[in-house]
Amino acid sequence: MTERPAQRTPNRQLAALIAEAGFSNAGLARRVDQLGLEHGLDLRYDKTSVTRWLRGQQPRGTTPALIAEVFTRRLGRRLTAQDLGLDACAPVYAGLEFAATPEEAVDIVSGLWRKDSGSHAELRKIAFTSAGLVVPSRDWLIGRADEKVARSEPPARVPAQGRPALRPAGPPESAVRRRGAAERGPGQRVTGGDVAALRSVGELFRTLDDAYGGGHARQALVRYLEHECEPMLRGTYGEQTGRRLFAAAAELTRLAGWTSYDIAAHGLAQRYFVQALRLAQAAGDRAYGAYVLVTMSRQAVYLGHGREAVQLARVAQQGAGSSAPPAVQALLHAAEARGHGVLGEVRACTAALARAERALEGVRTGDEVPHWARRFDEAQLADEFGHCHRDLQQFRAAAQHAERSLQLRAPGQARSRLLCRVVLATARLGLGELDQACQLAAEAAGQAAEMRSVRAVEYVRDFERRLEPYRDAAPVRTYRDKVAAHG
Asked: Where do the record's region annotations for Disordered lie (predicted)?
């Protein structure tokens, strides 16, 4: 890495922290390199690099934030680049912070919305980091509930002449960015109707995501959050309305993360999930916070981080408690099973699936079930069984459960049906039923071509990798011809 020309002033702040942490120069360099690898960076610093920093040279790019994070982990307190005598730069974990207050949470998440709705394409290239899961899940589990979220109308300023002052206008860029500024000015009162509108919009975007994939309307959702939801969060509201507002914002933010995950913007999705978790805490909704953790667990499973997926699911179970509705309990245990499945832990996976099944059997007509948990039904449980048995290479069981899920699943849940169809194709392939496997996968590939879902495409590609040993067989040639016809 090239460095800026040396400055004359030695960096005594950095030297003092190195001594406090007990690092050698080589040890600090090694830790910075290791942290860089978590973010997909090949840095290759050494003890000479640290000597230059101590003499006053400034490392470039995100390195000051990486160095600060190394010391934060070692010393157990949050440190910034400035605390180390280095130039200020964006925190390496920007967006992964679990805010101390609801006000700070609004600042962090609205910053994400604004950057994501603009031309910040690099935001969608941020890498997922498993290390970024630890602190938010811990803080959610042990953190105290927010005592107050209500926001009152700021007092009007009265000039000396006794005339009420006009409210000062916001910066021009902000006024342009918020197309609804005339309808919803700063401090405007939020009503129950406003919150109901947020929930209705959420249902609309969820339907679009299910049917057409996360890439179809993701940007429209993010812009809606920026232009409509943020002004509400910065408006005025009482305690009850405020809790409901934060709950609706948490759901929309989780959905923004889910759609980002579906297009493989994994680092961005992770940040949305963390902020949804913090908004759920402000809402006082423990069960929904557990659901956000399950969503994070599913992303970890998809990326192959089975151990982290299991831990997130268990934190969700502990946080939700034994009083959570049976449907929620089923969802939490199924998430744990998926993590064990990826790890190849047969007994633990089977036990978690059995707990999920027993919990779902406990659901009774008329039970109060959160609206977001109602979709965890027999079709979804069969889907979870199918995925787990596929990962454990128990192909006969995987095929049985995948077929059952497809029989029960509603047609509108097109992406879920597509993914399940690929699981069934993989199971048929594992059972040696090449013809049937290729027919099922060809159907799925055709559907994936009509969607904007990287996840759907990756499922099909995974199946194709498994086809490689049979590449010269007639059914495989027919499959490739069909896929080519889909473009």
From this structure: 151-192
